[in-house]
């Protein structure tokens, strides 16, 4: 839509115009004079035609006629003036009526969809109309955004409640089983591991929700220090081994000698937890999940790859959006929150790095990023 | 011995329910997604199905729809075990023919076994 440009032109004042010819009664005033003089003339003729009419009678009568004539003329003039003003006001207010009708039709849809705005002409009312239209557009965008946000928050609450219910129930069932007198020692150990893993999952769910608030999208609050990635990943791999074994997925950790990186170790641990959790979740039995650390010219490249279901091409642009869940992911894991990759991206971005995703539909996904090497003091 | 199919994508829940049911004399088969559940019901004809609602590939509702639409499986008792406790989910499961519904967070494996035993044809 092109902007309309209004140019205010200054009026030209001509001083060299010939002086107007002075007239006693300009042409425009003849109808007024005629309307006053003609009734008088007719009155005089009528009075003169009355036989025996005396001058003493004719003169006052004429005076009364003139007075009545003037009153009638002024009344008609005022009435015309009032009628004209009303008509003019009605015409001037037409854009305001159009704005009113337009606002009413927008309100019907709570301004989620706005009908096409009327065309406003130049002038104060037109300016007002344009201003109202622009404000309504802003308001509409905000209300659509708020509605979307409200829905997302409500969905997040339902999903989170469900996500927390599952590990909570696991903890409860696991502890009850542990407390049974006849439980075998090996089973007890497995149960204790499962309970610990469930508690860890609960903790991550809570972390994900807290971190998904917009406050956490920059690096404020991060504690950057020299972090050795190998022990962090060793611990996580150990944690994921039972579930990988259960799902018949091979879990591999490959690394040479890598230097420490500049990172927030707690948040980075969450990144790897999210990536490993996704990789295992979306890889069918018989598949492989590989974590690789490699020294590159830019720092330490961290890579998590799987031989899983992959990401359809159409889902790639939305991959890091908050709450977005790809078609395959929904199919495979109906109760995901769509927060994992959003947080991975936020945390890695706060570390000054980019997250690169390579995926082939049905053939696996690789997520990688390169962290800077920590400066040796 | 009654044959029970436990359709549950959470391996931990699946193994604990299986253990409790085996202790009460049930023979157990397990499935971890909707498609596998329908396949096992049709091939193994279990006496009862313990069905989770949120599962990969096909959810529990889709499984019930498929089973209720076929003469062989239309009257098989289904015990829904889920953590979806909202009224709509429970109502929907009932309408699709769940004989009983248990919220996992409010139950124990023993309670699930008891309710499953009560649903078996006498």
Description of the structure:
The complex is a heterodimer of chains A (377) and B (122). A 5-stranded mixed sheet of chain A has the order 2-4-5-7-6, covered by helices on one side. Chain A has 377 residues and is an alpha+beta fold. Helix content of chain A is 55%, strand content 11%. Residues 1-18 of chain A have low confidence and may be disordered. Chain A has 9 helices and 7 strands, in the order αααααβαββαββααββ. Chain B has 122 residues and is an alpha/beta fold. Chain B has helices at residues 11-23, 34-44, 60-68, 87-95, 109-119, and strands spanning 3-7, 27-31, 48-51, 78-82, 100-103. Chain B has a 5-stranded parallel sheet with strand order 2-1-3-4-5, with helices on both faces. In chain B, helix 1 (11-23) crosses helix 5 (109-119) and helix 2 runs parallel beside helix 3 (60-68). The longest helix of chain B is centred in the N-terminal third of the chain and has 13 residues, at 11-23. Chain B is globular, with a radius of gyration of 13 Å. Classes of the chains: A alpha+beta (377), B alpha/beta (122).
């Amino acid at each position: 839509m092109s902007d309309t440009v209004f140019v205010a032109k200054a009026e030209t004042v001509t001083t060299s115009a010939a002086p107007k010819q002075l007239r006693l009664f300009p042409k425009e005033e003849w109808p007024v004079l005629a309307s006053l003089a003609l009734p008088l003339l007719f009155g005089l003729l009528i009075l003169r035609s009355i036989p025996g009419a005396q001058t003493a009678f004719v003169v006052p009568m004429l005076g009364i006629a003139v007075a009545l004539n003037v009153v009638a003329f002024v009344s008609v003039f005022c009435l015309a003036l009032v009628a004209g003003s009303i008509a003019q006001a009605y015409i001037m207010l037409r854009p305001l009526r159009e704005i009113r009708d337009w606002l009413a039709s927008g309100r019907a849809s709570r301004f989620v969809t706005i009908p096409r705005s009327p065309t406003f002409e130049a002038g104060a009312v037109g300016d007002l109309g344009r201003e109202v239209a622009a404000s309504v557009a802003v308001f509409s965008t905000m209300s659509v955004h708020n509605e979307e946000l409200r829905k997302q928050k409500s969905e997040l609450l339902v999903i989170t409640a469900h996500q927390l219910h599952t590990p909570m129930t696991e903890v409860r069932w696991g502890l009850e089983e542990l407390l049974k007198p006849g439980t075998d020692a090996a089973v007890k150990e497995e149960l204790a591991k499962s309970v610990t893993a469930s508690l860890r999952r609960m903790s991550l769910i809570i972390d994900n929700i807290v971190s998904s608030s917009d406050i956490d999208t920059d690096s404020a609050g991060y504690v950057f220090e020299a972090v050795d990635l190998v022990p962090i990943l060793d611990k996580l791999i150990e944690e994921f081994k039972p579930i990988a074994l259960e799902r018949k997925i091979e879990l591999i950790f490959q690394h040479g000698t890598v230097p420490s990186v500049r990172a927030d170790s707690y948040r980075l641990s969450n990144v790897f937890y999210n990536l490993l959790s996704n990789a295992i979740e979306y890889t069918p039995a018989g598949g492989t999940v590989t974590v690789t650390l490699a020294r590159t010219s830019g720092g330490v490249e961290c890579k998590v790859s799987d031989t899983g279901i992959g990401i359809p091409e159409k889902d790639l642009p939305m991959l890091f959006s908050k709450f977005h869940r790809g078609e395959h992911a929904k199919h495979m894991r109906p109760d995901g929150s769509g927060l994992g990759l959003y947080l991975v991206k936020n945390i890695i971005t706060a570390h000054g790095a980019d997250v690169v995703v390579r995926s082939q539909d049905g053939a696996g996904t690789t997520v990688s990023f390169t962290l800077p090497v920590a400066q040796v003091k | 011995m009654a044959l029970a199919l436990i359709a549950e994508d959470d391996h931990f829940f699946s193994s604990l329910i299986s253990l409790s049911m085996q202790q009460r004399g049930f023979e157990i088969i397990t499935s971890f997604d909707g498609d596998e559940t329908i396949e096992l019901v049709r091939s193994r004809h279990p006496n009862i199905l313990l069905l989770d609602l949120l599962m990969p590939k096909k959810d529990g509702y889709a499984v019930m729809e498929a089973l209720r639409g076929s003469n062989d499986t239309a009257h098989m008792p289904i015990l829904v075990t889920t953590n979806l406790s909202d009224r709509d989910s429970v109502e929907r499961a009932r309408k699709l023919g769940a004989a009983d519904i248990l919220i996992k967070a409010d139950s124990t494996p023993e309670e699930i076994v008891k309710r499953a035993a009560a649903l078996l044809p006498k």
